Amino acid sequence: MKALQILLYVVVAYVLLSLESPLLTSFHVRMYAPDPALAIVVHAACSVEFLPGVILCAFLGLLKDGFSAGVPVGTHVEIYVLVFLCCFALTRRLDYRNVILLTVVTFGASLVSSFLFFVLSAIFDRDFEEFDLVFRLALPQALITSPMGPIVAGLLGFIDRKLAGSEKDGVFR
């Protein structure tokens, strides 16, 4: 069941990234795109066990690297695994499965993701020169990504309930 759950999470991420990419390019707002894969990482931290969650985040990172032009392969793998580890540790202290806390945690995860992108780009990408752009877009990116947390969690909670065969005990408490 965990393998099917991970596969469905990856399929959902692929569909969301596939829909997002051409729509945002046609509206010329590519820089202000939400990150649905990051929202899946945040949700996975409280709904998937540790090792399957790390594997899921590595797959999501590879998928995101494929949709991100000009980013060294493996950048988002590192980012998503590290964000998963932070969120997984946070779930041991805080149950953030309500809408407000999930939005706040997704906001924080987006800020951490932007910082990690800056650090990894500074270390591994010799041609990267737009460091100020990363920091200027970090807050708008986090504000746009944070509402994706509850939306994606609701969708993935529905999938989890269908896999488990139960109609009750939703993702939000």
Descriptive notes:
This protein has 173 residues and is mostly helical. The chain has one domain. Helices cover 75% and strands 0% of the residues. The two termini are 23 Å apart.
SSE layout and pairing:
Blueprint: H1 2-26, H2 36-47, H3 50-67, H4 75-91, H5 99-124, H6 131-145, H7 148-164
Helix pairs in contact: 1-3, 1-7, 2-3, 2-4, 2-5, 2-7, 3-4, 4-5, 5-6
Tell me briefly what this model is.
By secondary structure, this protein is mainly α.
Q: What labels would you give this structure?
A:
173 residues; globular; mainly alpha; 7 helices
As a whole number of angstroms, the C-alpha radius of gyration is 16 Å
Q: Count the strands?
A: 0
- Overall pLDDT score: 88
Helix content: over 70%
Q: In the residues, how many domains can be counted? A: 1
Q: Shape, please?
A: globular
Compressed to H and E, one letter per element, the order equals HHHHHHH
Percent of residues in beta strands? under 5%
Number of helices: 7
Largest sheet entry: none
Low-pLDDT stretches are none
Assembly type of the chains comes to single chain
Report the structural category.
mainly alpha
Distance between the termini: 23 Å
